[in-house]
């Protein structure tokens, strides 16, 4: 039955007073359509997986378009089903995707090698050389590390390269005809100068002067997309782009397009964390903590990625590959035990029971140690990982301490990079916003994270909206550039959003520090496990 609200939304959709955001994540492509009050009108998604091809992780371009069309088609279908109108006009749109990686094209716009994603770690030599040369951390994931590694490896395609971009930049280019990139995503390609909101000119010169690069028939300046800050128009949806996104021919061309962004930037927007001294913690299979800086870090720190907000301000990111995989495995064990005893519990009940026990344990988890490393972890100096639980004979082994050790362990790797920023570089953080499934149990993960970072942790009612919603908000911002991005988010998007804050408890902070020192001191246990436990079998 149609309601007055649905009729209102239908009128908004028909008039094109909407914004679309689509984000291509590692396992899911999600599309969200919002109105001018930032309500989600409809969504659609498409599941996909990367493939290992010739030793490198990739997605084919055919997969990209199949996924984009699938997610958009699902969204358009839900619009028609709920509001009884076709989706013919969209006011503004934007595309985001997993950052970094390597998409290289020749002068005829032909893809030279399969898309190399952020997961690939074959760029260690380039990472070390460029970081040393620039005196800025150039992570293995970055596009420039992929290009330089291809140069060092004398790959045949290198002389033919005419353009390199990210996944979001590629999609935007195909839909709008413009080779541009949001500055946040661009900051994962090559170092950004936050003063002029562009690539660092001195570092571009330095890169071109490297002997292996100087012999190439191109300059790095000619290969990179043009960075744009949030609010700058990045073109419009062309007729060909409309047909590419919606092969049914229903969608009209002409939608104004926001600069394409990376998933870190859309996460900042979705959590209202773009103002200096704020940040967010995105927690899932992996975890990253992002802090908006008042100025660039003074020294080279391989534990911190120097990136930028969508507005072009400097930010530091501590990224850990491992987070919930080991924790979920242990919870699964307790689920099996409960079922063996005839007790049936929902996931919410099971996680809630175990997580709340963690608040009853000894402040330092009673001397227990856990390593959550399913895979390698750059922050801990590990090329591979092995999950390990260990304890001394005099430790206080009980379920409350065990669960506290699990949560402390999960937040420990990302704390390494955060400590570099806050304790070595003196970065000031007023508050951090946590988002991800681990925060669904009220208070617990918030309280543990507040102890780990010694910083207030806020969880907002909108945090579950995610990057696609954040990208739709960036598209809407195109019509509100009379305000800074930070002011726009504060006054319009998040003005009435509810949130809850956990401040760090001094006893919890001291307890985590005791655990973290034990965790760091005992890393040889993990290293021995990597050497002695086979990866398979």
From TrEMBL:
Keywords: Carbohydrate metabolism, Kinase, Transferase, Xylose metabolism. One of its GO terms (biological process) is D-xylose metabolic process. The keyword Transferase applies. One of its GO terms (molecular function) is kinase activity. InterPro entries: ATPase_NBD (IPR043129), FGGY_C (IPR018485), FGGY_Carb_Kinase (IPR050406), FGGY_N (IPR018484). Residues 20-210 form the Carbohydrate kinase FGGY N-terminal domain. PANTHER family: SUGAR KINASE, XYLULOSE KINASE. This is Carbohydrate kinase, FGGY family protein. It comes from Bifidobacterium [indicum] DSM 20214 = LMG 11587.
